[in-house]
Amino acid sequence: MIKLLRFLSPYKGRVRIMLVLMFLQMLGTLYVPTLTADIVNKGIINGNLKLVWGIGGFMLLIAVLIAGVSILQTYLSTSVFTGMGRDIRSALFKKSQSLTINEFNRFGPDSMITRCTNDITQIQQGYMAAIEMLLPAPIMAVAGLLLAFSKSPALALLIAAAMVVICILTVWIGSKAMKLFAGLQVMLDRINRVLRENLAGIRVIRAFNRSEFEQKRTDKTYEEYAFTAIRVNKIFAVLLPVIMVIMNVCTILIIALGGQNVANGQMEIGDIMALIEYAFLILMYLVMGIMVIMIFPRAQTCAGRVNEVLDLCSDRSGADTPDDCRAVVKAPKLEFCNVTFQYQGAEEPVLNNLSFTADIGKTTAIIGGTGSGKSTIASLIPRFYDIQSGEIRIDGENIASMSEENLRERIGFVPQKSFLFSGTILDNFRHGKKDVTLTEIRHAADIAQISDFIDSLDEGYETRVSQGGGNFSGGQKQRLSIARALVRKPEIYVFDDSFSALDFKTDAKLRMALKGEVKDAVAILVAQRISTIMDAEQIIVLDEGRVDGTGTHKELLANCAVYQQIAKSQLSEEELS
Ligand SMILES: Nc1ncnc2c1ncn2[C@@H]1O[C@H](COP(=O)(O)OP(=O)(O)OP(=O)(O)O)[C@@H](O)[C@H]1O
Hints:
By secondary structure, this protein is α/β, with parallel strands linked by helices. The chain has 19 helices and 12 strands. A 6-stranded mixed beta sheet has the order 6-9-10-3-11-12, with helices on both faces. A 4-stranded antiparallel beta sheet has the order 2-1-4-5, with helices on one face. Adenosine-5'-triphosphate (ATP) is lined by residues 343, 346, 350, 368, 370-376, 528.
């Protein structure tokens, strides 16, 4: 929690005003019991009605002032802590965007969502409660005890004893709850994950008649959460009634012992009333402080989880060392030099000592069996992952020494799984290029063979796209994703199996139109279908992470066994000859 205090610094001014208002509120609250004693001792006992009305009116004025100050303080506190929560969320999101895919996967999207939402809300509430309730507790306790001491040292000691009992009880119970709080946040992560899987995979669940099984699975996660939350509440359910009993016993003892003192002439009746009010105030603030201690372990756990992301030192820096390849000749444009790559946690490398060169103005296609590492090659170009050894160079420069922003600015990436953002079709084109013009959009849509479809829609480019592009077919999503990459006019195009959902006719038309578009760029085309890549100037055949053959379709048909096998399985005798 202390580490996150830096997010309060933009609100220093308002925090100071809040503290002053809080101090004024405490002063007013502590003054009221003294006035109560005066109204009884000097007004009621002496039958001085004028004084009763005078002190009563003054008490009313103080009560109104305390209420006003309290409203102002609550307003300030809400604005400060809501702002702080927004700033932490924004920092966390920014950080999550800067992580490598491996680092991001350490937390996972579900945990990241919980951290960005519920965890920050808990932190926000924790800070708010700490300043509004925990901070005044010791001040009120000390000041209240001193004032009580001035009325009766013996009864002040009684109040102090009650305080000690309440503190011991709270620390004991709080320590039991602390462990359970940490578990609650992890369970929230799990609920998020199961819910996301269920909602995203709703069609598969229904198609396989797994609704009942999934229902049981979600119920189990809810039950686990509820069970732990109930255990926490059971622990605290004991605390508050016990505190109330202690407070009432304290009041009874003040009345009994104070009554004896009044009878002995050592105290006045008004002082007993003041002492009861002091005891009530001290113990009430103590209880409020205890409430905060209840919230605090959870907020502390959440702060730990948020700091875990914010403090993560990206291991990217290791790969960012400048290389001695800068001096290499300008062309060829994209090179893989002895690249070896292994996924985090995997037993062996996916790519082994892989080398190839992709020239400018030519299409380099990558084909191979499933799991041979084609998509992995595609995702290494924009540096979604860092390689373990070797180099990937663009214009002779190692991509590890480029800033990610500059590198990705030069690449038009079309992922294997098309993804559209919610908004309009136009918004999705703007994801490709912020200041894209309508002419550029139309041109890209023409090449991607999607313009006729968009024109046929009632709202054209303003048509709404639902979450993930759910209201478009697989082929339409693929073509929109391709068009989105085309508007960028990048130096390197990476199409990761991006034509798989297109029919053969559209696939051929698209490739033909693309030829002119990519003539000043490097085009990497990952595909499963031979028909998609047979026109490529260079085809790389991949087998278990190694290059098994390189050449044109004809060359490979003549001398690459793996390619021949793929071709035989997909092409007719006529096409093969
Ligand atoms: N994030 C990941 N973590 C661990 N292993 C992975 C990850 N992604 C892929 N792999 C593994 O790496 C290997 C290569 O995967 P890749 O997706 O590159 O294959 P591919 O040739 O594109 O396959 P396909 O044609 O089926 O899409 C596979 O064995 C896969 O299990």
